[in-house]
């Protein structure tokens, strides 16, 4: 049992979990998956293809014939983390294939690690497979390995990420994701629903819907039945009997039409919106090339809460953006007082090679960025603590993530895995199992987490 750390990076996926036991003599591949949940889905697809070809999946370096490192290139600190992971894999194993967002810069990677076997960019699944075949030829057992395989999951069995689109049409100056992953490309709704149905049939109790811009889903297709296809898609996903959690929802005005789905528990769409506001001062937002109507955003938040009073709002922000003055930062703090967001993550601005924000004037000194991050997180923590304290005495539905000798670690509908808080049950939890959904009465609250007991009326 561990409490949720307050400075958890909001761009990271849960730690990949590998549990296969390869047969004797089977060629095996290891996987290091870095970055966001979208990258984790890419890792799952690669491993699913490899397993279908007869490869085993090794949970450690020593047991792998080669290692794939799926990298992140979102921030310079993420690039450094990716380079470190590549170096560790080379040291521990020696045969390394690099893919993912940082793979879009092969010369940069090879400059630091010339011994790698191959580099491919994001979503280049076939090239990854070609590189694996070249370094570790497949040797399947036709009686065991070439049977139709279920998808490899790198998350616990009871929840799964569901990626509905790739790319992004926004041109935020601090972001290079569109350069690495391209423009918005939505998956057909029937393919998304088919995947979701299979996941639920296989025991998934929570679907975490992800993309670069979830609310823009389907708007890149000409022949569509709905002006905003995310709305019927969310409704259809909610009918499958699992929790449906929407991430990365850009705050378009029509998000108001999504919220009524969340107000009725029978719809299955959780009352939870993950919306990246990034800042609140109009001048800062203009320099970011983001919508600059922060006051109107407060009106939208009020409308969402009027329709669905129990809605949980999560967001991420950037402090220390080039040109950010103390007055602009204070506006952000004041906006937070008004918005009263439930879950908040925060980045200190970093230059990223290729981002247009690098060329902006008046970059903020590191010490000032750190001070503003500290002050922002103190504000967010105080809001979180007060909101959680108000839940003491309430009975909430929770999903069980893990059970050990100390407690059952659970999440409420207000908590996404790894990035939000937890609810702990430390009495009469021994019969619970991961994936169980139970009613819990909250009896204690902290800054980010809750504690409670199974409701006797459940």
From TrEMBL:
Membrane-spanning parts: none
Single annotated GO MF: protein methylthiotransferase activity
UniProt cross-references to CDD domains, sorted A to Z: Radical_SAM
InterPro entries: Elp3/MiaA/NifB-like_rSAM, Methylthiotransferase, Methylthiotransferase_N, Methylthiotransferase_N_sf, NA-bd_OB-fold, Ribosomal_uS12_MeSTrfase_RimO, rSAM, rSAM_horseshoe
Residues covered by the TRAM domain: 389-456
Residues binding [4Fe-4S] cluster 2, per UniProt: 168, 172, 175
Chain ranges of the Radical SAM core domain: 154-386
Ranges for domain MTTase N-terminal: 27-137
Keyword line: 4Fe-4S, Cytoplasm, Iron, Iron-sulfur, Metal-binding, Ribonucleoprotein, Ribosomal protein, S-adenosyl-L-methionine, Transferase
Similarity field: Belongs to the methylthiotransferase family. RimO subfamily.
HAMAP family to which the protein is assigned, alphabetical: MTTase_RimO (MF_01865)
Function: Catalyzes the methylthiolation of an aspartic acid residue of ribosomal protein uS12.
Record's protein name: Ribosomal protein uS12 methylthiotransferase RimO
Encoding gene per record: rimO
């Amino acid at each position: 049992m561990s409490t949720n750390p307050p400075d958890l990076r909001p761009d990271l996926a849960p730690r990949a979990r590998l549990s296969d036991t390869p047969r004797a003599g089977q060629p095996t591949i290891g996987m290091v998956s870095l970055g966001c949940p979208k990258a984790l889905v890419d890792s799952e697809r690669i491993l699913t293809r490899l397993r279908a070809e007869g490869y085993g999946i090794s949970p450690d370096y020593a047991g792998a014939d080669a290692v794939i490192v799926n990298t992140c290139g979102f921030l310079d600190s993420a690039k450094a983390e990716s380079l470190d992971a590549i170096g560790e894999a080379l040291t521990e194993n020696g045969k390394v294939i690099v893919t993912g967002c940082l793979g879009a810069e092969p010369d940069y990677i090879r400059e630091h690690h010339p011994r790698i076997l191959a580099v491919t960019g994001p979503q280049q699944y076939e090239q990854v497979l070609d590189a694996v075949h070249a370094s570790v030829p497949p040797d399947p057992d036709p009686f065991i390995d070439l049977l139709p395989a279920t998808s490899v999951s790198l998350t616990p069995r009871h929840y799964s990420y569901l990626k509905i689109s790739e790319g992004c049409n926004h041109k935020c100056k601090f972001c290079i994701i569109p350069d690495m992953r391209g423009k918005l490309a939505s998956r057909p709704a029937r393919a998304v629903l088919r995947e979701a149905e299979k996941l639920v049939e296989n025991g998934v109790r929570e679907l975490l819907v992800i993309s670069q811009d979830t609310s823009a889903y389907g708007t890149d297709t000409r022949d569509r039945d709905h002006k905003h296809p995310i709305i019927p898609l969310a409704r259809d996903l909610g009918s499958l009997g699992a929790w449906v959690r929407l991430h990365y929802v850009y705050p378009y005005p029509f998000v108001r039409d999504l919220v009524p789905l969340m107000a009725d528990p029978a719809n299955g769409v959780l009352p939870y919106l993950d919306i990246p506001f990034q800042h609140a001062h109009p001048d800062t937002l203009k320099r970011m090339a983001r919508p600059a109507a922060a006051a109107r955003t407060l009106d939208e938040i009020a409308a969402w809460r009027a329709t669905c009073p129990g809605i949980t709002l999560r967001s991420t922000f950037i402090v220390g953006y080039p040109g950010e003055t103390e007055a602009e930062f204070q506006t952000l703090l004041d906006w937070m007082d008004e918005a009263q967001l439930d879950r908040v993550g925060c980045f200190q601005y970093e230059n990223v090679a290729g981002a247009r924000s690098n060329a902006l004037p008046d970059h903020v000194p590191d010490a000032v960025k750190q001070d503003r991050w500290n002050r922002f997180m103190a504000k967010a923590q105080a809001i979180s603590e007060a909101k959680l304290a108000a839940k003491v005495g309430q009975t909430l539905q929770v999903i069980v993530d893990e059970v050990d000798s100390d407690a059952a670690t659970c999440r409420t509908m207000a908590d996404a895995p790894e990035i939000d808080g937890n609810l702990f049950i430390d009495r009469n939890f021994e019969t619970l199992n991961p994936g169980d959904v139970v009613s819990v009465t909250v009896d204690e609250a902290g800054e980010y987490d809750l504690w409670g007991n199974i409701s006797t009326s459940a």
